[in-house]
């Protein structure tokens, strides 16, 4: 996909002083000029800025037309302390896109695999719905599409339930038992948007500007700068999965 023709960005997108969304957009465009194998997509989430509004969760559901029970971007809400000294912590938890993903070797049909850019993908046409990958994920980042609809108990399914999704660059309409119904599903960093020069939906919809995305192989990128800070952490480092989602605490 290197060298794909995209509309030019405004001049304000350049430089470290630019708005973070514009800067990440420019970072993304630079990454797309490189071969896929030279990109290293990572996500950084600043827990100090997350206010638990769930706008990322909703944007993800709308972008990927997710049915009931399928959530790519939950926000974990924890209450810490004892009254009157109580606080809440919100932790958005997408797929970690691990460099050593436990979900890949357990798939009996090689439907789950790691792309050259590091994103762990699912081939819906190969997936047999065994759900071994769901059990293997230490982050509970995978869910199963049981073929349900939000409006199935009403007089008629609403049109948005049948709107096509473009995950992995393929147009699909959920219908009957056709994929992705009957498949494991997960966050894929909105690959279909990336390849059109757009940031993931959870990034652009973040009200608190708490989510960052880009190519960690680019020393000029915002994410390269952020993951070098001393307050960066990953979830469950003891699992040895080497996540590509980082948290600022």
TrEMBL record:
Listed GO MF terms: 4 iron, 4 sulfur cluster binding; metal ion binding
Statement: the UniProt record of this protein carries the keyword 4Fe-4S: yes
Alphabetical UniProt keywords: 4Fe-4S, Iron, Iron-sulfur, Metal-binding
4Fe-4S ferredoxin-type domain residues: 41-60, 118-147
Database matches in Gene3D superfamilies: 3.30.70.20
Pfam families cross-referenced by the UniProt entry: Fer4_11
Domain of life according to the entry: Bacteria
The protein's name in its UniProt record: 4Fe-4S ferredoxin
């Amino acid at each position: 996909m290197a060298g794909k023709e995209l509309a030019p960005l405004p001049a304000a997108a350049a430089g470290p002083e630019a708005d973070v969304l514009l800067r990440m957009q420019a970072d993304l465009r630079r990454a797309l000029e490189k071969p896929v194998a030279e990109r290293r997509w990572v996500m950084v989430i600043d827990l100090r800025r997350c206010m638990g509004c769930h706008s990322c969760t909703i944007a993800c559901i709308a972008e990927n037309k997710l049915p009931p029970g399928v959530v790519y971007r939950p926000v974990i809400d924890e209450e810490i302390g004892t009254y009157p000294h109580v606080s809440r912590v919100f932790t958005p938890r997408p797929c970690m896109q691990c460099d050593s993903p436990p979900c890949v070797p357990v798939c009996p049909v090689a439907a789950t695999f790691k792309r050259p850019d590091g994103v762990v993908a699912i081939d819906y046409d190969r997936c047999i719905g065994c759900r071994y990958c769901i059990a293997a994920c230490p982050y509970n980042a995978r869910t199963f599409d049981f073929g349900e609809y939000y409006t199935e108990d009403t007089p008629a399914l609403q049109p948005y339930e049948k709107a096509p999704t473009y995950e992995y660059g393929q147009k699909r309409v959920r219908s009957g038992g056709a994929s992705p119904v009957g498949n494991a599903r997960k966050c894929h960093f909105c690959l279909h948007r990336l390849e059109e020069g757009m940031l993931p939906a959870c990034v652009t919809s973040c009200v608190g500007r708490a989510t960052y995305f880009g190519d960690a192989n680019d020393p000029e990128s915002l994410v390269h700068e952020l993951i070098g800070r001393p307050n960066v952490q990953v979830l469950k480092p003891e699992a040895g999965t080497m996540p590509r989602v980082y948290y600022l605490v």
